[in-house]
Design a protein that fits this description.
Layout: E1 2-6, H1 17-29, E2 36-41, E3 54-57, H2 70-80, H3 83-99, H4 118-135, E4 140-144, H5 149-159, E5 163-167, H6 171-174, H7 181-193, E6 196-199, H8 202-211, E7 219-221, H9 231-234, E8 245-250, H10 259-270, E9 276-281, H11 287-296, E10 303-307, H12 312-319, E11 323-326, H13 336-342, E12 347-350, E13 363-365, H14 370-382, H15 384-398, H16 403-417
Parallel strand pairs: 1-2, 1-4, 2-3, 4-5, 5-6, 6-7, 8-9, 8-11, 9-10, 11-12, 12-13
Length: 419
């Protein structure tokens, strides 16, 4: 089975769960002996793990039209199209060319990030997808998240092969319901043209059905998983630079993640005890606001901001923690609680998260229930038997949530589509 996958992030260069999930799923699927995965990224950095899949950079793929003159394009198009179709297509091509710059090799340049001209990079990515689809042969196309849906649709039109969309999040999650109409339309178009849609939770599946008006028969939940810890991570020692207990929030500091509820809960806990410290690890557009909120609550001497952490730094922070909290307002899945539980960290998650569907050994609260969050934190920090139970049972639970199993579910979907 030859799969063409389109992604936007891949470890070690990630900004959220999308890259982690893409890595875990592809590595799990690569355990199938006849699975051949080609993974396309806008801009690989060169240090990605190529051992179990082939990585292609859109930034390294020459586009075929670079040296074609406009007179040649016009003469060829006008011969085979009626005037209205010809002028519409010509104007579309002109619009694309006006924004596209190529290097000396005829390749479109990409930032490899989420730039201000993100929509233009998404469009350019879909153009390169067409070149790749014409160059190689595949059995199925798989697009990860909305940024790659246009690329998947373009590849499908060229190859005539089934398209699977993997919904890691929707704009309803990212915006707390204040949906960007342009992003929504990209998501909706992709879903309408997909042969099958994979969602990372039942919560997300219901959003896709209700908000994007998709047939439930073509929408399947495949929960995310967690990769086994490497030897160097297992060898990390829980160094304590802070005296007392440490409670950690680790993720993007955005409205989707509910960081203000973490700060408010911290204030409640510190009304009862002063021997607990709170750490907000990450970055995002709400970080400055959270710094001011912590100051307003008088928490400055017990509240710490680390900035963005990646790779080994994440696990160093987790190993120093006594409690992990994910108070997300709308979390399609949420891999970080699984990573915390792997490290034996007692974990509190919002009921509004997809991972709550498969985790029984984490404490579940409503994201808005600050008192419940505070009570859970206080209980874990003050009662060693509760902390030990959550630590041991949580680690045991996540040890059975494997990417290999998720990969087999995806393969079953492929097999049904390729009959």
């Amino acid at each position: 089975m030859r799969a063409l996958m389109f992604g936007w992030e891949f470890p070690p260069h990630i900004l959220g769960g999308l890259g982690t999930a893409s890595y875990g799923l592809t590595k799990g699927m690569a355990m199938q002996p006849d699975m051949d995965i080609t993974f396309v990224l806008p801009k690989p950095w060169g240090d990605e793990d190529h051992s179990f899949l082939k990585i292609i950079g859109a930034c390294n793929t020459p586009v075929v039209w670079r040296d074609v003159t406009w007179d040649h394009v016009n003469s060829r198009l006008s011969q085979f199209m009626i005037p209205q179709e010809y002028f519409e297509l010509r104007n579309h091509i002109y619009a694309d060319f006006n924004y596209i710059t190529t290097n000396d090799l005829g390749c479109i340049e990409f930032s490899g990030r989420y730039p201000d001209n993100l929509l233009q990079e998404i469009n350019n990515y879909s153009i390169v997808a067409g070149v790749i689809a014409r160059t190689y042969n595949f059995d199925i196309i798989h697009s990860h998240d909305w940024l790659t849906y246009p690329a998947g649709m373009h590849a499908k039109n060229i190859l005539g092969k089934p398209l699977v969309l993997h919904v890691h999040a929707t704009d309803f999650d990212r915006s707390r319901g204040n949906v960007n109409p342009t992003v929504y339309q990209i998501e909706k178009d992709g879903m309408d043209h997909a042969d099958h849609i994979i969602c990372v939770s039942n919560l997300t599946r219901q959003t896709v059905i209700d908000k994007y008006h998709q047939n439930p028969n073509k929408v399947t939940t495949v929960h995310n998983a967690v990769a086994p810890l490497s030897a160097d991570i297992l060898a990390l020692k829980p160094e304590k630079h802070i005296k007392g207990k440490v409670v950690t929030f680790l993720g993007r500091i955005t409205m989707q993640k509910g960081p203000e509820y973490f700060v408010e809960a911290a204030a409640r806990v510190l009304e009862k005890t002063k021997d607990i410290h709170f750490v907000m690890a990450g970055s995002g557009d709400m970080m400055e606001r959270m710094i001011y909120l912590a100051a307003e609550k008088g928490l400055s001497d017990r509240f710490h901001f680390t900035g963005f952490l990646k790779g080994k730094q994440v696990y160093e922070m987790l190993k120093r923690s006594n409690v992990y909290i994910m108070p997300s307002v709308s979390e399609p899945f949420g891999i970080s609680p699984l990573e915390a539980m792997q490290c034996g960290i007692p974990t509190i998650i919002s009921k509004q998260s997809g991972c709550a569907e498969i985790l029984d050994k984490a404490i579940k609260v409503d994201y808005w229930d600050i008192d419940a969050i505070a009570d859970a934190v206080y209980g874990i920090c003050k009662y060693p038997s509760l902390a030990e139970y959550l630590s041991v049972e949580g680690r045991n639970e996540v040890s059975n949530i494997k990417w290999e199993f998720a990969g087999q579910k995806v393969r079953d979907i492929y097999n049904n589509l390729c009959k």
